[in-house]
């Protein structure tokens, strides 16, 4: 059944207090769908439906709920019930939950947590937000090199219910140094007496706890991994990162880049859940900054006001030149920003990028200028001189725009600034000012007043 239809049915069943049907339906559909539906209900009805779930399924649904609903639940349910829910979460989901909760809620949960686990949670919470350590889990299968395949499988059967993944197992020594990895498939296919050290792959792709999560996601993509070990500075295994967490990272990073490219301060809240005031606050800074920076174009026009007064027709082509320049620059910046995000472009490629954008701009600029010249002369019936001025300006503007659009994200990367900041709004403002200066300069050369 379509998820939107399910949302309406849930609301209807809750309104009619038809809890038996509601409970049966929630046990039938995937936990992810249950969570999505509960996320779209008001907090009171969402909690009412949530409490109909059996304990084991409730913990799964809870891990998929939005932060907004989970915060609401934490304020409405008893501390013992909240503690029970948190205990049933996988460790990485537990950390994600605690990171988003109000400080008083976290304090209450930690007070009821065993000392050993509390120390571990505090250690995880202290990792930088965008680091590998902040998204790893400690629920993985570890094996010893001197185990046999049969012993390893027995160990996996015993520990699997408490592990997030068992498809890749990690071989460690007595000091927990990472020695290698072995897949569950290899263990099942191997002779029962084969030792793990003869089965394991010693060429392990691993990351450090403080490595950036974007770097981690690039390794997952490059090596087609389902999980990856995380080690400390002494190569001791401290956790693993699973593909589901990397998908969350990629979604968050892409969302942040899109927001920055649109001139919006990044936020983790969804569009629907944000209040108008929050949305306005996130957008206002960039709009104010761009509005102030746009005064440069106004000053340039004012400076050439007398020129425009004598050749009024020149003013008619200013919007076209500025729009074309902004669009050309946005195309280049978008491609370079995406290339940087996918690690296809390095900062050392700056001269190659500039050269390539220059060649592209020549082809695009001349094509646009030729078409524009014919349009102005044949259709608009503008004088050849004016058409030539506009078309030459168009060529120069496109060249400048594409070079600037390709160059600025690379310069931002070199300065350790998010390249997405150097996107459409900012580049358009810069190119607009440059296009106007070029326009009036070329016009001054061809038109004598």
Describe the structure.
With 449 residues, the chain is mostly helical. 66% of the residues lie in helices and 6% in strands. The protein has helices spanning 3-15, 19-28, 31-39, 43-50, 55-64, 67-76, 79-87, 91-100, 103-111, 115-125, 132-135, 149-159, 184-189, 196-199, 213-223, 243-261, 276-293, 295-303, 305-310, 318-341, 350-379, 384-414, 424-446; strands at residues 142-144, 168-172, 178-183, 207-208, 227-231, 237-242. A 3-stranded mixed beta sheet has the order 1-2-3.
In short:
By secondary structure, the protein is mainly alpha-helical. The protein has 23 helices and 6 strands.
Sketch the topology as an H/E string, one letter per element: HHHHHHHHHHHEHEEHHEHEEHHHHHHHH
Number of strands: 6
Mean pLDDT: 85
Q: Helix tally?
A: 23
Alpha-carbon distance between the termini?
73 Å
- Output the radius of gyration: 30 Å
Bin the strand percentage: 5-15%
Strand order of the largest sheet: 1-2-3
Structural shape: elongated
Tell me the major beta sheet: 3 strands, mixed
Structural class: mainly alpha
List unreliable stretches of 5+ residues.
Answer: none
